[in-house]
Amino acid sequence: MSSYSTDVKNELARVTGETNCCHVAELASLMRMGGTMLIGGNKNLGINFTTENAAIARKVLTLIKSGFNLKTEVMVTRGRRLKKNNSYLVKVVPSPVVTELLTVLGIMQGENLNAGRDSGILRKACCRRSYLRGAFLGGGSVNKPEGEYHLELVTGNYDFAKMLVSIMKNFELPVRQTDRKNDYIVYLKDGDAITSFLRIIGASNALMAFENVRVVKDMRNQVNRLVNCETANLQKTVNAAFRQVERIRLIERKIGLEKLPPNLLEAAKLRLAHPEAALQELVDAMGGQVGKSGMNHRLRKLEQIALELAEEDENEPLS
Q1: CA distances from 117 to 107, 124, 300 (A)
Q2: Global pTM?
């Protein structure tokens, strides 16, 4: 995960929903992303939630304890490999109350599991925002804005992925979905869409950082386009001037420039005197006696004469 993704998540871990229903929606989404159920004694249910981000672990713990009197444990597993992050396990000890929590979250419906159709807890826009925030905290990532624009939510739950797509479409985001091995990827590839998503989930600082970089990046791209266009135009001008000189030289060899009408003779001598000049520079050299279109017409006429002379002599090379 990029450091930018970590910054976004650390900011979101401090964002709290507007009301209790928002807390429920965010926790439900977090649990669908990183939670697993476990069965204890007397078939009581418990919950394990794992994350590599300490701030997210604290938020999950806070959301769980805010509405329910549940016994929780937190375990930290240190990464054994070099640069491997620590893993945080938030464990809700199995008890009858856990079933109540899972029912409130919409994960349990009676004695049955709800695969991921959480529309019942998503009637309000504020809850849908919180739900997306939980999804990003639990399984999201976003590229740093200096690189390619890409934000994704990764889940192994197909129904949950479809739910996320539906909510994001409700916010008019150009969301797409694909699959990767056993995971389902819900993603955005557009810079404007990513800034909108960050705004929706409440990542205001990350949004400002993203926009600042994006403005600089877009300006740099615009300058590069202008430079490339200017370079292409310059090459085009040089190529045209080189071709015109070659063909005027052919006329000179074949019939002599003095046989040309006065206006064409003047244009031919001017081009030979300024072999690398652009069209406007030739116009300026004539003191504005003829415009760009007039000068262009004369040079084209000279090229046409050269082509006709070349056709008369098939052995005459002509570029």
Answers
A1: 9, 15, 71
A2: 0.68
